[in-house]
Design a protein that fits this description.
By secondary structure, the protein is an alpha+beta fold. It has one domain. It contains two helices and ten strands; from the N terminus they run H-H-E-E-E-E-E-E-E-E-E-E. The strands form two sheets. Strands 1-2-3-4-5 form a five-stranded antiparallel beta sheet, with helices on one face. Strands 6, 7, 8, 9 and 10 form a five-stranded antiparallel beta sheet that branches. Strand 8 and strand 9 form a beta hairpin. The longest helix is centred in the N-terminal third of the chain and has 54 residues. The radius of gyration is 35 Å and the shape is elongated. The N and C termini lie far apart (about 115 Å). The N terminus is likely disordered.
Length: about 210
C-alpha cells in the first residue's frame, strides 16, 4: 500500500493558489486604483475650493455693485441736474454735492438707510488706500462734508491692485477723471477695479436715476 493511500490523499490531487505573477498584477491594479481615487479626491477638493472662491467673489461684486448703484441713484440732486445752496434756514443742507479727484476718490451726497431704524441724508466717500477700497460716510448736516477723520469706515474691496474712477456727462459726452464743476453733477460714474489678480466687470452707475 502506497504512502498516498495510507494518508488518504489522492495521487491526482493538486494544490490551488496564486502565482507570483498574479500577486504582482493584483498589487499593481490595486495601486493604480488607489492612486486614481486619491487623485480624484484631490481634484474634487481643488474644484470645490475654486468654486467657493468664485462664489465668494461673485457675492462680493454683487454686494458692492448693489450698494453703489443704490447710493448713486439716490444722489441728492435738484431739477435739471444743477446744484443748489438749499434753503437759507437750513444752512444749505438740502443741496446737492459731488466731487471727484484724480480718478482715485469720489465724494457725493445721497439718501440712505442704515439698518432698520436709521436713515437720512449722508455724505459718502470712496477711495483707495493700502491695497484696499474703502467706503466712508458721515451725516449730511451741512452743505459740504466736514473732516473725514474718525468718521465711520468699512472695507469694500480687499487685495486691491488697481482702481480708477471716471464720470460722464451728457454735456460733452466724455469720460473724465476729475469733476470740479460747481454748477452740475455728472450723469454716470464708472468704477474700474482689479483685485486678487482679476479684473472686475466695469461698474457703471447712473447718478440720481
Amino acid at each position: 500500500m502506497s504512502l498516498f493511500k495510507l494518508s488518504g490523499v489522492s495521487e491526482d490531487s493538486s494544490q490551488e493558489g496564486f502565482t507570483l505573477v498574479e500577486v504582482l498584477i493584483a498589487v499593481t491594479l490595486m495601486t493604480l486604483i488607489l492612486s486614481a481615487t486619491v487623485s480624484a479626491l484631490r481634484t474634487f477638493g481643488n474644484t470645490q475650493s475654486s468654486l467657493e472662491r468664485v462664489i465668494t467673489r461673485v457675492d462680493e461684486i454683487r454686494a458692492v455693485s448693489t450698494f453703489l448703484r443704490n447710493a448713486f441713484a439716490a444722489t441728492v440732486i435738484t431739477e435739471m441736474g444743477t446744484m443748489t445752496l438749499g434753503p437759507a434756514d437750513t444752512g444749505g443742507q438740502d443741496g446737492a454735492y459731488f466731487s471727484m479727484k484724480d480718478g482715485s476718490e469720489v465724494r457725493w451726497r445721497s439718501t440712505a438707510k442704515f439698518g432698520e431704524d436709521y436713515g437720512g441724508s449722508y455724505f459718502f466717500r470712496v477711495y483707495a488706500a493700502d491695497d484696499q477700497l474703502f467706503l466712508q460716510w458721515q451725516l449730511a448736516d451741512a452743505r459740504t462734508p466736514g473732516s473725514w477723520q474718525d468718521k465711520s469706515v468699512r472695507v469694500l474691496v480687499e487685495n486691491l491692485e488697481s482702481f480708477r474712477l471716471s464720470c460722464w456727462s451728457r454735456i460733452d459726452g466724455k469720460w473724465r477723471s476729475v469733476w470740479s464743476s460747481s454748477g452740475s453733477i455728472p450723469d454716470k460714474v464708472k468704477f474700474e477695479i482689479r483685485s486678487s489678480q482679476r479684473y472686475w466687470p466695469d461698474l457703471i452707475m447712473r447718478v440720481s436715476g
